Amino acid sequence: MDRLRALEVFVEVVRKEGFARAAEALDTSPANVTRYISDLEAHLNTRLLNRSSRKMSLTPSGEALFERARSILEDVQEAEAIVSSAALQPHGTLRINAPLSFGVLHLAPLWPQFAQRYPDVKLEISLVDRVVDIVEEGFDMAIRISRAGAAGNVARKLGAARNVVCAAPDYLRRHGTPLAPADLARHRCIVYANNGMADEWPFLDAAGKPQHVKVQAVMQTNNGDTARAAALAGMGVIWQPTFLVGEDLRAGRLVRLMPGWSLPDIDVLAVYPSRRHLSARVRVMIDFLADAFKDVPPWER
To answer: In the chain, which residues fall in CATH 3.40.190.10?
Structure first.
């Protein structure tokens, strides 16, 4: 069995949602398509497709194979193009995962520029506020906002963001202004659940000496935009990165508190699987983002 051809046939069957349509697209017979799928299932010792007279669907094994097979075929196509010099321009589908707030505020404005520069690359952008398994979930790369690094993947630093504690002027008029971290124990705080230290905030003084303060949470959320909106409404004090609240600080909608104290900075990382080669489309995307965020990133300007 030609396994690469079998994968090509399988992917086309899924894309076209049927054996006959796949056969037409591949310029072969439905019988050949059926044979390739049967041989592939026999080779893998698992059923890939649920087939009936009216409906076809992927099994869990089929779903897992489809994502990997599609990526493999695109990599093969790209490798052939490079070797034959038929096309030096990156092409194919580039699947990117990124955090929701950062993706909307700072990545979304860049996608039209990238698309204009690399028109043969199709972008699939998934925004979610959790750390995904890039390989398991079929992504080519991810953008992560992290103090913990890449955790088993290769990473390139694109920039950094400062963490700041801030509140709305209206809140400060009603509740007073905290001057030191210990004062936060008497304030209403809005905590972000995904940073691993939701209600214990790790301050550093001017000399770099740490001081952890346990705060009283009036609200907890796993979404930075929700925390920001609550703070803008005067609900309490937040700890958030400048890429989310920088414009609010510049406009005076939020006020930075305790400037003599700091919180650890966080890195903006481009992350990709270590056990896969760096494809042309991933490489140009990383270079593109690194250039966009070089020197002083937009959220710090």
So the answer is: 92-158+266-300, 163-256
Winning range, highest mean pLDDT, from 1-15, 89-103, 223-237: 223-237
Q: What is the rounded CA–CA span in Å between residue 89 and residue 228?
A: 41
Ranges of CATH 1.10.10.10 domains, the chain: 3-84
HSE-up of residue 142 (Cα within 13 Å, Cβ side) = 30
Q: pLDDT at residue 279 above 60?
A: yes
Give how far Cα 75 sits from Cα of 57, 69, 87, 91, 140, Å. 25, 10, 13, 10, 11
- In CATH, what number does 163-256 get? 3.40.190.10
The hierarchical CATH code for the domain 92-158+266-300 is: 3.40.190.10
Rounded to an integer, the average pLDDT of 200-211 is: 87
User: Quick one: which of 267, 261, 206, 270 has its CA closest to 241?
Assistant: 267
